[in-house]
């Protein structure tokens, strides 16, 4: 019986969301998934930067651990963090290893952050 309780406790802990305080650098670089070479610089004066910054402040909770690769969207490099915005998710990456590694994910409502995904179109 105690083994079952331990296993259930571990499952609950793994399934819990995490709160994160993600701060954008004063200048970030946005890359389009269709063209990983073109770099678009964003600063607090840009609407896309302001929209993302506001979204990150409003969505500090509800992040889930993840790994793997996610296709499409745009990728933003901010300091040691990478932020990928797809049609359905925001994925946070750690960029300190040799290759970016997905570490957290959060679902995005339909139409949310569309200003950022439409950059370069």
| Record field, number of beta strands | 7
Q: Largest sheet at a glance?
A: 7 strands, antiparallel
Number of helices: 3
| SSE order | HEEHEEEEEH
Arithmetic mean of pLDDT: 86
Structural class: alpha+beta
* Widest sheet: strand ordering: 2-1-4-5-6-7-3
Shape: globular
Fraction of helical residues: 10-25%
Strand percent estimate = 25-35%
Distance between the termini: 58 Å
Unreliable spans are 5-13
Radius of gyration, in angstroms, nearest whole number: 16 Å
Notes on the structure:
Helix content is 25%, strand content 31%. With 121 residues, it is an alpha+beta fold. Strands 2-1-4-5-6-7-3 form a seven-stranded antiparallel sheet, with no helix packed on it. The termini are far apart.
Short description:
By secondary structure, the protein is an alpha+beta fold. It is built from 3 helices and 7 strands, in the order αββαβββββα. Strand 6 and strand 7 form a beta hairpin.
What keyword list fits this structure?
121 residues, seven-stranded antiparallel sheet, alpha+beta
Please give the structural blueprint.
Layout: H1 2-15, E1 28-32, E2 35-42, H2 47-58, E3 64-65, E4 74-78, E5 81-85, E6 89-94, E7 101-107, H3 114-117
Antiparallel strand pairs: 1-2, 1-4, 3-7, 4-5, 5-6, 6-7
